[in-house]
Amino acid sequence: MKPFDYQRAERLEHAGQLVADSGAMAIAGGTNLLDLMKLQVETPATLVDLGALPLDTIAEADGGLRIGALVTNTLTAADARIRGEYPLLARAILAGATQQLRNKATTGGNLCQRTRCYYFTNIDQPCNKRDPGSGCGAIKGIARLHAILGTSDQCIATYPGDMAVAMCALDATVEIAGGDGSTRSVPVRDFHLLPGDTPQRENVLEDGDIITAVLLPPPVSGQQIYRKVRERSSYAFAMCSVAAIVDQADGTITRADLAFGGLAHKPWHDPRIGELLVGAKPSLTLFDKAADLLLENAQGYGENDYKIPLARRALAAALCDATGLTA
Amino acid sequence: MTALFKHDKPDNRNVLDHTAQGIIGQPLTRPEGILKVTGNATYAAEYAFDECLEGVLVTAPFAKGQVNSIDEKSVSSMPGVIKVITDKRLTARAAQGTANEAPKQNVCEVHYWGQPIALVVAETFEQARDAAKHLKFDYTEDTDAIFDPEAADSETEDGATQQGDLAHAMKQADASVDLHYSTEGHASAAMEPHASIAQWDGDTLTVHASLQMLNYNITELADAMGLKEGKVRLLSPFVGGGFGSKLGVSQDVVAASVAAMELGRPVRVVMSRQQVFQTIMRRSETTQRLRLAADADGKLTGFGHEALVSNLPNEEFAEPVTQSSEFLYGGENRVLQIEVARINRMTAGSVRAPGEAVGMPALEAAMDELAEKAGIDPVELRLRNIPEVHPSEGTPFSSRKLAECLKEGAAKFGWDSGPRTPRMQREGEWWIGTGVASAARVHNVGEAKARVTLQADGTALVQTDMTDIGTGTYAILGQIAGEMLGMSRDDVLVELGDTKHPRGPGSGGSWGAASSGSAVFVACEAIAEEIASLLGAAKDDLTLKDGIASWGGQTRPVTEILDGKAITKIGHYEPGDTEDDYAASSYGAFFAEVAVNQWTGETRVRRMTGAFGIGRVLNEKTARSQCLGGMVWCIGSALTESLLFDPVDGHLVNCDLAEYHVPVHRDVPDMDVILVEERDGAASPIQAKGVGELGMCGGAGAIANAIYNACGARLHDFPMTPDRVLAAMPAD
Questions:
Q1: Structural domains of chain B sorted by starting position, each given as residue range(s) with its CATH number in brackets
Q2: In this model, does residue A115 exceed pLDDT 90?
Q3: Is B148 on the interface with A (CB under 8 A)?
Q4: Is the preceding omega at residue B116 within 30 degrees of 0, hence cis?
Q5: Is the pLDDT of residue A327 over 80?
Q6: A123 touches chain B (CB under 8 A)
Q7: Which of B655, B719, B723 sits opposite A306 (nearest CB)?
Q8: Does B416 contact A at CB distance below 8 Å?
Q9: What's residue A3's pLDDT?
Q10: Cα dihedral: B308, B311, B317, B322 (round 10)
């Protein structure tokens, strides 16, 4: 581990100034960053601890909820309002990591977690995300965990989280304080980026930006399903996950907000799927058409080819679950 | 002073059935358990020595080639850096189990990705780790590294069995299967990483390390260091899991020793989790061919089991895939053979139950397919094929409870011996199915000594270099001594893991209990004999219980007999002719119920029953825990565990516990263990056999068979991950 300085931010503006310095990184729960520092994947000169900032509460706001950036995953998943009105979010969080990690992991940190690509976490391997221009070890290597949607020839890593997939389906918004004192809001659906030619850039945050909260829109009616497919039943990243909010009236789908994890460099949302489903009657044929849209441009890299049929089946399973259709 | 027991004939006296204390076999809690769960058991890396320096291994980022030079100056000005050790004595690999000589040295010659090439020593761990990452070295990478066992040159292991005409038997069979299986590499994944602290006082090298077999390790270390064995002391009183990965002296031990001798200060070397995965033993991946031929009654007439495994050049170890296949089932026409491919992956060596762990699941899955073809219930098929004598050697079996385990296990599990058509049971979106497999693991013993002292105050002290790697050695040795000397186990102090004590074979191959346990037994018999002679009593007439000696109608407190003196005996157990005269093995049976998701192919084990015959049970609680642990490994090897190697440069990619998937608590369901009553006098004079590995020898096959019974997916590749299950799932 490279030696580093440690500073504790007392106020938000102060935090913004500190993290704007070159070589500075913000730390909250540290569940991902500390591991990466030990592996020398991240080598910040300064850690700016956000832990003292007053961003650790869940409050009602605009008919929805405002989850402070420092609220832990455990508290979010246990919150009665979240469990009652946004069960999708509670389930997604509980599907991720372990209890010990969730006790430390925060809302803002979880959004910013890095890929678990084996080549990214091994500094003796090429990785365009860690070391731009060095190449991608995964494309010709072990790509079992990797993306099938929105990849580039620079990077096929996945965004590994679960929480953000649920937030993406819920159409939540990330609230960001800029280093210049400004505040802006970015939909979760637009927060993460595809790798393109700049896989080192994973989200829209700029130097000095600090996530302050995630805003959940007012609750909606319907079934909320989070289905995560994995080899073992806990402490494993998704081979594929589906977040679905589906409502029906008189046997017709009236709402269908879906997002997918484990398939891309970001939580995947394709508005065409909702458009296809809304107004239609649930059927396996319909769900298959939804999968056709989802997987229209899917590309496997050998090791992860399985994700293409798996995503199709996971989508059908989630929609059966949500609509009550039995296969 | 030393009492020798040479095991030339079965010891069927069953002495421990006639002693009076009544603690042998009892489910007593391990005496060191509280220390462990409260963090007060001191593990190798945890000793606080003044002036201790920290060493971090530098590893090769290429799989084959030569390190030409190491630029010590590239880090020498970094904070805290003391020295870069590039000594010729550094070891490139860990020693194989019972190697008894230095493992490969000359670290400049690189044969696998991640091989240690140097040690950076600094004042603090963080400084050493940072410097290790920055150390510059010049190397030449060879272009002819080979990572694919199928593409590499291979050689046939000695000891292959060729008997009769298997091809003909296959042609003549009423039912037969000819199947190919694969298993992926496994890691031991012990919780405690490999770690050492070495101290050099100018004369003697003392090393606290995490090792399983000190008697061999001391020789390996002395040989590597060029020291006389008498100038080396090894201590491993607590070992946080080994599973074979700590059988031989590992690279940290030698590196810490070299540094301590060179720098004159204690040096600690702790491997990172990634280094443990990348530089310590792997279990070889295997490809296997199973040929089974049966007559109309389901009796095997032909039995073929061939395997391709791999290892580095010049490593003697070859995963003994067919070890229990040699004798588990009959069939007069036999082919059993192992080929070893030479490839550039880290050393292949012993990982819990080498051989059976991967050979038995394949065999047991093939038996399931044969049962289906023959139209015979799979439990019944196994019962029909238990041979009279060793099928190729003709030797008699010692005690064998395979049939009892199959029957008792089936009864407890509620095995349905009716027709076994897949997809007969469903709950929601889950297909439910059951499967069975036999368990077998060869029984091993090794020469062992232990010192037992009956103290003047009536308590006892047991001393041996034997280790407790979480298995329960402290518990059972105390129980054997307490039972034999007539006292509660709390009155027996057991000291382990120190080479200054009498030596035993250590922990490995499930042989610790039967070997060192027998040495303690032999010492105690000699002590009892001396008490009898002090009393003028016949040995067989003497009873020791709760500190009181009884003989010929008289009683007297043992402390009174001792009259202020202690009695010390060294028990010496030496394996003898019984090893050759009998085929000794532990047996059992697994029954598993699984649920397979119709959408995703995810498989979850819902319940499991294991019935095991392990000879005399020394402690029902620790024996049961061993079996449970083995069954958890069955779940891992059936469903999730797999070492993934990069096809381009051969490095191990999933080198931590987040990505190498051992089962988590939620994957482990209700598990039931039946210990079938048994005494095996050919196995040991305490009639006990090995138990540490048996619990994982075949159970993955029961899970595979249950997957088929649940959903109709017949897989031949372990682990059976959701993608593989889906690919094999019949169309809806």
A1: 2-32+445-576 (3.30.365.10), 44-144+188-282 (3.30.365.10), 355-443+584-728 (3.30.365.10)
A2: yes
A3: no
A4: no
A5: no
A6: yes
A7: B723
A8: no
A9: 87
A10: -20
